Amino acid sequence: MRQNEIISSTDFASWAFGLLIVLAIFALCVWAIKQLQRQQFNSGERLQIVGGLSLGMREKLVLVQAGKKQLILGVTPTRIEMLHVLEGDDCLNKATFEPPENSFAYKLKQAIKGKVDA
C-alpha cells in the first residue's frame, strides 16, 4: 500500500461490512445469554423471600419459600445459617398477616390508601 493513497470506497465498504458482522454477532450473543438466563429462572422450583425481621444493625431473620418448604434463615454479614424448616401445615401464610392498628406499618398503609385519621 502506498503512503499517499487515499482509502478507496471498496476498502471502506469491506471495513464497514466487517464491523456490521461483528456487531451482529455481539448482539446475537447478548440475546442468547438473556434467553438462557430467563429459562434458568423459569425452570424448576423458585425461591422467594416471604418476609424478614431485623434483629440488630447487621443481623436478620429471613423466611424463604423454596417450593413447598419454607426456610427460616439467620443472616449476618459473614454467615447465613438455616435455623428451621417449615413444611405442609406449618408453613406461614404471608397473606394472613395484618399489622396492629397502632403500628407505623398500619398507619403508613392507611395513608397510602388515602384513609388518614386525624
Strand content: 25-35%
Cross-sheet strand order for the largest sheet: 1-2-3-4
Number of strands: 4
The whole-angstrom Rg is 28 Å
| Helix proportion range | 25-40%
Mean pLDDT across residues:
81
Low-confidence stretches: none
One letter per element, helices H and strands E, the order comes to HEEEEH
What is the overall silhouette?
elongated
The domain count comes to 2
Number of helices: 2
Explain what the structure shows.
This protein is α+β, with helices and mostly antiparallel strands. It has two domains: about 1-45; about 45-115, no CATH class. Helices cover about 35% and strands about 25% of the residues. The chain is built from two helices and four strands. A four-stranded antiparallel sheet has the order 1-2-3-4, with no helix packed on it. A hairpin with a 5-residue loop joins strand 1 (about 45-55) and strand 2. The chain is elongated. The model has no long low-confidence stretch (mean pLDDT about 80).
In short:
The chain is α+β, with helices and mostly antiparallel strands and 118 residues long. It has helices spanning 9-42, 104-113, and strands at residues 47-54, 60-66, 69-75, 80-87.
Layout of helices and strands:
Layout: H1 9-42, E1 47-54, E2 60-66, E3 69-75, E4 80-87, H2 104-113
List keywords for this structure.
alpha+beta; 2 helices; 2 domains; 118 residues
